[in-house]
Amino acid sequence: MKRRKYEKKPLVPLLNFGCQDFMPKMATCTLPLRNICELEPISDVVCEDGYKSLINNEAFNEFLKRYIDHFEEASKIEQPIVSLEILESWRREKNGRFVKNDEERRLWHDIGDKKARQYITKALKQISKSNSKVSDNTDRDVIEGTTSCTSEDTAATETSSQSSNLKGSSLMPVAPLASAEAEDQNRQEFRCIEINPKSKDRLYGRAQEQSNLNVLYEQSVTRMDGLSNFLVLSGEPGIGKTALAQSLQPTVVENNGFFVQAKFEQLTVDDSLAAYISVFGDFCQSILDMNDKRIQRMHVEKITNLMEYLLEDSIAVSVVPALGEVLKLASNSAKYQHSELSSIHESISGDEKDEKQKQQVPVHVSYSSARLKFCFSKILKSTVCKEYPLVVLLDDVQYASSPVAFRDFLTDLVDHREGLFFIATYRTGLGTSSLSFDQLTSALSQDAVNLHHWEVNGLTPQAVHELMADKISLELPKLDNFSSDLFYLTGGNALFLLELLRSFQDDGILKYDSGSGQWICDNHLLSHHPSMQINSLGEFYQTKIAELPQPAQETLKIASILGPSFSKKIVDKVSKHSQAADSLVMATKVGLVIKKSDGILSFRHDSIHTATYSLIPDNEKSIVALALGRRLLRKAGEKGINKYTADIISLFYRGRDELTGTSSSSDIASVATLCLQASKAAATSIGFHSSIFFVDFGIELLEHAGKWKDNYDLCLSLHNNAVDIHYGVGQFDKVEELVGEVLENAMCFEDTVQARMMKVYTLGTRKQLVEALEYGLETLTLLGDPIPAFPTNVQIGLAVARTKRRLKKKSDAALLRIPTLADKKKIEVMMALQILFLNAYFARPSLAVLICCRIIDITLKHGACAVSSVGFAGYSVVVARGGINIEEGYKFGKNALAFSQKFGGDVWECRVAAAVYGCINLWKEPLQPCLDELKKAYLLGLGSGDIEYAVLNASLYIWNIFEYMSVDQLELAIRNLFERMAVLNQERSLLSLKPAWQMCQNFLGRNHNPKYLLGEALTREDLADSVYIDNHYELRSSIGADEMVMAYHFSDYAMAEARLPCAVLLYNNVSTISAANARMYHALILLATTKKSNWRRIRKVKWLLKRFRKWSKSCPENFLGRQFLVEAELAGVQNKVEKACAKFYLAIIQFRDSRCLLYEALANERAGKFCASIGDKGKASKFLNEALKVYKYWGAVAKCEHLKSEMQTSIMCLTCNT
């Protein structure tokens, strides 16, 4: 046959799958093609790396570029013809070969024309990255031997027309007419239009719906009330729902917005996190694909800064690789820093990240998923607005795993933000759905979204006719009849229509005549074709499946039970016959199955999966699933059981009706045991909902196997595991329900200890401290080791004295040589004591002292364990309380660290760090190393799921860094921490941090009266809650002490002095740096209103100064500046002007060196006011203006305004020149 050049002849249209007949004959190479000893360096192309070798070969790469324009202009079906022409030219012009090495014979062989052509095609596609992508769902490249996915989306987005259908249609690409005249003529009659591969995708018969969709989108993203529009598109499979939704994408992208998609799949156990990952992955990819680099840089900078604050990039990038690419785009420009503050501003705000440290943090089931969701939600919230809107397409929501999971997913996304528009597609006509339409609408709260529902119907006869005219070039009368028949057969379902056309072509009814450039249709064969009797898309697919050999049909049924996507290995293991692999290859060739990734296949379209699954009778589905689960369990064996556990249980879950109805109790118990193992394994991953699913399924199974009566030990283990997991995700009501069941059915008290401890944890997390203490003390009594609920001072004194006496006899080395505690009952007592300790520390400090002494007593008498570290840490805090006996406390803090490293590991280091680095070491060591350790402990607590201690470490970090970090960054860090805990419903655990948060807001000017701690952060409801916390001295005294600080800074010395008792209570009972700060303010307040003759106040100040001098000797970096400031004020009261000025200078220098912003500003302010009081206006002005600069940099807007006002009025009317 004479070679046909594609430029001069009509292109073979898209539906021509038989174009092999039109392939030109190849020009042969004159050189030998086999047993080649020496290669021609110019003309021979070595193909050891496949098509990549062609790209890397410089000579052939240049040769390819000559044809790149022709390749881009060709349609997908014509691209191999271009490749064939390139191959012929290379053979003819260069006498070239494409060779591979035979390693055994050490000779070269030509790979042949077919393989070479395939490599050339792939190389051209790789080079032509700018080429428009043709949808894999509508085209199949038979020449290449591949089958692409045909989906509802792409079946509906191939062509378009200007006609509109008010209900619904499918979509196809249409070529634009050459001129306006041709366009007018096309409106009057249906003409045969050749397919142009460069044509843009538009919709058939959707002009009105597209217009309405755009209006709804504009209304949603510009609403000011925070209520986003939520559009539900319902219709049968293949009708064009997704395509209609995706037609909005160009508009969104043009408006600098984001169009993201999450697809729900049938028979999926857990889709909660997958939906977040899909949405966020598309979001990041949209940023990477942005053409406007200015906007791209802005988004990248926002995300980078936020990731630094959240400290979540390690785990988030591992789940969403596109986020890593976004972070790589971040600029490395240095940020403006004052006094090298970045070295201190780490941790909760996270200006720097230690990758090695974060890699050591274990991932815990409870918090890993929650922190990912929180991270994704924060980034979306900070980026999305009406200027940069976000459109979320939720595809096939009828397959969402549960209404609760879907509602939670939607709630996290909505979060009262503007610039959002939601579109959901819902398939009708399915027998069963995970989420019914009523459940979907009820899950959409009217307070969060405005619900809209559109029903999408099929194409109109006119739209079908246009589609047919674009796809095949038949004579007009034949086309009219053909399109009319197909319309009534398919009901206007575009996917059904395309599948029929392909079927007709495969069966020879439709043939392309290259001579005339027309399609030829055999009407006789068409009228008798079996497909003309098919009434639905599902029936069509079932007919195609029925044409396969019986083994292939059975293999596809097995795959459908596994889900829309499945593993080839699993199918091979559970299949009865040995032809499973060949059957899957056959299904791939006929276009029913496609390759998704290595070892994973999927049905080409969800309708194919649904049709295949429906071939299994409903009454046999459960039976078959159970049989497959048992077969996979048997084939996996002991070595492979861990690899396939999740798949096995998923099969058992689908066969649960048969399992519980026909199996013995022992078989059911075996599956429940497997559920327990799977739940524990899932607890190490980020799919925490899977862990909950497994354990809850195991408990559900035991309902049919005697539960507590016949499987007591297994049931107890399942319930204890369930308690731990539900606690981790913040489902506290479920925890109490499970604990109640354990207490009701346990045979002995020992079996209830673990559940009781988790209940104490739950009560403590909810800040129900009184109930937690009562229940914990009751548990201790039942364990045979009672402790008084309200110990007297005598009891506490005796316990402390006894502990001191015993510890004096033990050196540090001797303590570490204490044998390991082996008594199981004593271990339970120790665990109960450490759980009680934190609750007692906040509610009853005297009880906390007694608990520490009891832990040390048991350690010395019976042996050491991990809990011993908590006892020594708590004891060190007790000893050094208020900054007294810091040497002794420092020693026991080291013992606590040694015990935690010896017995406990990371989890216990987190618990000990709060006491050692937050309360003890800062009296002996510079603040920065202590902050680093608190940061590490905070991350360890998050990773291990120990939320209470993570919160404690974070709180201590914030209290200790308050004066050093800029107030706006500190406020943001606290806000992020509260939002993070809100993910787990644990906001109340941060109640004691709210006064510090409100102080930040007051300094920022967000409260009309900054002296009082009442506003957005600390509300009246919070104060009411604190009333019910038994003796919560820490919260109540903290509020009073913080109001004292605010009153002093805003020159209300009378109010500050009235709050002094709260400060005294605080610094006598805590060991943090707040104890030193409270003493400093105590002294400053006494000196602010005193006179030289008031010797009682001066004596009190001198007594306080003795403490500061002692601390300054131990750690001058932390305390010397505070000492100098108090000495300067005292010298000023005593009229020692030179000494006062010198001390003010020393205080300012010391605070500046230690990077303490607030106190540097305060020292300048006090020095300025002192100079003004002695009449030195020049120095006063300099000091006060410097104070204003530092206050401004620190972020204290309200304080700057107050100081300016004082400078203009009270302080001799000095003028502010800043």
TrEMBL record:
Q: Where is this region: Disordered?
A: 130-170
Occurrences of domain Orc1-like AAA ATPase (ranges):
202-418
Q: Where is the DUF6824 domain?
A: 44-125
| Low complexity composition-biased segments | 146-170
Write one Pfam family the protein is assigned to.
Answer: DUF6824
InterPro entries, A to Z: AAA_16, DUF6824, Hybrid_Histidine_Kinase, P-loop_NTPase
Gene3D superfamilies from the UniProt entry? P-loop containing nucleotide triphosphate hydrolases
* Name under which the protein is recorded: Orc1-like AAA ATPase domain-containing protein
